[in-house]
From TrEMBL:
Residues 12-63 form the PAS domain. Keywords: ATP-binding, DNA-binding, Nucleotide-binding, Transcription, Transcription regulation. It comes from Marinomonas fungiae. NCBIfam families: sensory_box. One of its GO terms (molecular function) is sequence-specific DNA binding. This is PAS domain S-box.
Amino acid sequence: MKTSQSSKLRQAADTYRTILDALEEWVVVVDHNARIFFLNRPYARFLGVNADEVKGKKVTDVIENTRMHITIEKGVAERLSIQKIRGSNMIASRFPITDQGKVIGAVGTVIFHDTYEWKRINSHIKALLAEHEFRAQEKNSQELPTSSHYRLADIVGDSKAIKELNQTITQVASGDVTVLLRGESGTGKELYAHAIHQLSERADAPFIKVNCAAIPENLLESELFGYEEGAFTGAKKGGKAGKFQLAHGGTLFLDEIGDLPLSMQAKLLRVLQEREVEAVGSTSPSPVNIRLITATHRPLETLIKEGTFREDLYYRINVVNVSLPPLRERQEDIAKLAEHFLQALSRRTGRRAPKLTAQAMTALLEYHWPGNIRELENILEAAFFTARDRKIPLSLLPANLRDHTQSELSVVHNDGNVYAATGTLKEQMDRAEKHAIKQALSQSFGNRTLAAKQLGISKSTFYEKLSKHQLI
């Protein structure tokens, strides 16, 4: 029986010897006694042995820290385990060989020669998957939009901060100057990029948006600058125009510019300086005429100090710097924004828009909004679909928002009076006054004239108190 088993293994090993010797992976085959039947040439070279001379030797005498004998004993495969051989941590797998239910040997492979190689290949696989996903999305998406969708009139709010911002945008848009939009995530940078394009002389030309953080690094160059036919494996017949070429004559909006890799920053800088693009695989550059708008939520000055953003590119894109205020600095716009989002949902769904209760509105006004307008929109969308009796009470708002509101108030009595637990009389009165103003604003849904009337003070006095408590 044992002779028959050995004969089968010997026949299989001889058949595949040429193939196994050609592999980069290291392969060893042992019989039921854990003696080596076959060791491929790459593995033998690493071990410093002659592949033919080690035949018949115990695998434990030839390969250190092997578990091939354990695989035979247990008849269970071991996949991708770490095995230290000659000082290196390698990734090995072992599989039992069976015949009619009996274990007659085992095959072992070393797939990665050290953990660094595994990490490198793992990173490469992730990049390939990202590329595949991006290409699939690109293929399934509709035709690339080449026009802007938003105007300055679409921006909701009449706070001092927004009025000043809109005035700046109007002035900037009339020129053909490069603009850097800066602001926290969710403050509306893309919306303002659209508005600048619509107000410019390029309004009838293409508007092309690129999210620098969403495109895999290995695809950025071909996406931005295009490629020629045959430039790389998988390149389309006839090549493909890049975003710069598509935006020719119009506006190119590079969102999340702070996430652009250093290697691409140098190439982008050259294009901006030379005003010409060289597609991947091409030897002749083509001129481009675009207006550039960039945006970021990241501190570019800090990135420059850290060496992850080029200073020369920073000065090239930072011709006009426009800062967008976070929602917490334009509190008086919250009521109007809330109404805007609820009405938009109503139009989209055909359902009547629910109303925020006074408590819920107070919570929105008290909250610090780390996610800005996008967070407000998401919260209201969730409340819209869970509201009953066409009302959005405080209980339908997220717990963190409710908790923040409660922490703002020291003590709230049944009669509605608010008292601070600590501080001088003046400090306590100031806190109570600020809360009363916020309550009036919430109950009047942001209408300052009604809020002043509700408090029994003149509009000018009301504005003075708004300024005093930094509510403007």
